[in-house]
Specification:
It is a single chain. By secondary structure, the chain is mainly alpha-helical. The chain has a domain at 2-82. 74% of the residues lie in helices and 3% in strands. It is built from 23 helices and two strands. The protein has helices spanning 2-25, 28-49, 55-82, 84-89, 93-99, 109-118, 124-142, 146-159, 163-175, 179-192, 197-209, 213-226, 231-243, 247-260, 265-278, 281-294, 299-311, 315-328, 333-345, 349-362, 367-379, 383-396, 402-428, and strands at residues 430-435, 440-445. A two-stranded antiparallel sheet has the order 1-2. A hairpin with a 4-residue loop joins strand 1 (430-435) and strand 2 (440-445). Helix 7 packs antiparallel against helix 8 and helix 10 packs antiparallel against helix 11 (197-209). The longest helix is centred in the N-terminal third of the chain and has 28 residues, at 55-82.
Length: 469
């Protein structure tokens, strides 16, 4: 009996957790199936305590539970293959990796052995200690224990200085956000070995994170003098140029990276971003198409492809790209919003509102979705709901959005005025009628199909433009 109760309680907890998770993924079919599993186990407990449980009911209940659990396993496998589960657990991490340069670490034993062996001033024991501390630091770093890694790299440098240990210490500093200290470590590494490519790269990465892009470019230039065949460095170089507004120059760096490595995902992605900023949208489409070809499970690639199609008014292709992005990343609020924009453009305003609602459900303070929702509702003549959405936008929008705030304020005033006018007209049309059967006066309201709450229909409501990515 105890084992039976314990097993059933575990199943109830399991199904409850799965239901919560499926609700967050908005997989309503899975929610219903798991509610069935939950209720089945609960009914089993009820029958057991009521002494109504029979062998037949037990077999039926166990069969339902097993089927529901098999269903859950299949759903989990499907989500993992589609990337949706990964996307929910780790949303948009890839975008950060692609847009921000990655620091370098050195794990090659031969690199530090060569450097320590070249230094004959120290005793052999000190070189061995430096080597062992460096290895222990690497192990701690790979385990994510950055404090321990930092301590071991400092001990390695204490026993015998090496550019390799300085580089790895700089990597830990960047990981922890200590960019000035990372630059100092790189400078020390360069003093020992001015051809240490990783030191120049990490120096550039640190300046890039500090938004000192001119200095970042100079460091990447030095790294390219040491090794001009590194596609990562050319990509980082292009990113720094792009952030400085030197878009044409950044394209040259991305082209060089792609020439060296045709499937260099970050180069294709950031090249597409540069083309978008230049207004060369057709070329941006080519780049983002290449991105999703290289990595089909990259939601942000499809999102930016959709944005590019959106700007070209190729709305059906935009909707297809957003659908791909949302299958991979169900909680991608920007994709829901921009899908709504594309739907609005082709007149599917009801579906557009559903998309805006999904975006707002994920991020309630997403002001872009609120104004787009308001515009769609206004186009459908749903004035009161439109006013609420405009007012929510005005509550959330930052003061920098002066143009959109002015538009929303004007629309609220116009809609409230129109609403008041329509209500006044309806009041005028009320009249008293005599009912000969009841011999009493009844109040009746005249109807007019031209009145009510219908507003002027527009084919393409005003929208907030898609992001450049």
């Amino acid at each position: 009996m105890i084992i039976f109760l314990f097993t059933n309680l575990l199943l109830i907890v399991f199904f409850a957790l799965v239901i919560v998770f499926c609700v967050k993924l908005r997989n309503w079919g899975a929610v219903l199936i798991n509610i069935l599993g939950f209720l089945t186990v609960a009914s089993s407990l009820y029958l057991e305590f009521s002494h109504l449980q029979t062998r037949y009911t037990l077999v039926v209940i166990m069969s339902i539970v097993v089927l529901v659990m098999i269903f859950d396993i299949l759903i989990a496998i499907f989500q993992l293959r589609a990337g949706g589960l990964y996307a929910y657990l780790k949303p948009m991490a890839q975008k950060d990796v692609l847009e921000n340069p990655e620091y370098k670490m050195i794990f090659d034993d031969a690199a530090i052995r060569r450097e320590i062996n070249l230094n004959q001033k120290e005793e052999m024991i000190e070189g061995l200690q430096a080597y062992e501390m460096w290895k222990m630091g690497n192990k701690a770093y790979l385990a994510g224990d950055y404090d321990n890694a930092m301590e071991k790299y400092e001990l390695s440098l204490h026993w015998e200085a090496s550019s390799v240990a300085w580089v790895n210490k700089s990597g830990v500093c960047i990981e922890r956000g200590n960019f000035d200290q990372a630059i100092h470590c790189c400078d020390e590494a360069i003093k020992l070995n001015d051809e240490c490519e990783e030191a120049w790269i990490n120096r550039g990465v640190s300046f890039d994170r500090k938004r000192e892009y001119d200095k970042a470019i100079k460091s990447f230039d030095k790294a390219l003098i040491v090794n001009e065949s590194n596609p990562d460095t050319w990509t980082y170089h292009g990113n720094a140029l792009r952030r400085l507004g030197k878009l044409e120059e950044s394209l040259q760096s991305y082209d060089k990276a792609i020439e060296l490595k045709n499937d260099q995902l970050a180069a294709w992605y950031n090249k597409g971003v540069a083309f978008s900023k230049l207004g060369r949208i057709e070329e941006a489409v080519e780049c983002f198409s290449q991105v999703v070809k290289i990595q089909p499970d990259f939601a942000f690639g499809y999102y930016n492809l959709g944005n590019s199609y959106n700007k070209l008014d190729r709305n059906k292709e935009a909707l297809d790209a957003y659908a791909h992005a949302l299958r991979l990343q169900p909680r991608f609020n920007e994709a829901w919003n921009n899908q709504g924009i594309a739907l609005s453009k082709i007149g599917q305003l009801r579906d557009a509102i559903k998309s805006y609602n999904r975006a707002i459900g994920i991020k309630p303070d997403y002001y872009e979705a609120w104004i787009n929702r308001a515009l769609a509702l206004e186009s459908l003549g749903e004035i009161r709901e439109a006013i609420k959405s405009y007012e929510k936008f005005l509550e959330l929008a930052p003061v920098e959005l002066k143009k959109h705030i002015a538009i929303a304020q004007r629309h609220v005033e116009e809609l409230k005025s129109r609403l008041a006018k329509e209500e006044k007209e309806q009041q005028k049309r009320k009249r008293w009628l005599w009912n000969p059967f009841k011999k009493e006066k009844t109040l009746e309201t005249a109807t007019d199909p031209e009145l009510g709450e219908q507003t002027e229909q527009v084919d393409s409501p005003e929208t907030v433009s898609p992001d450049d990515g």
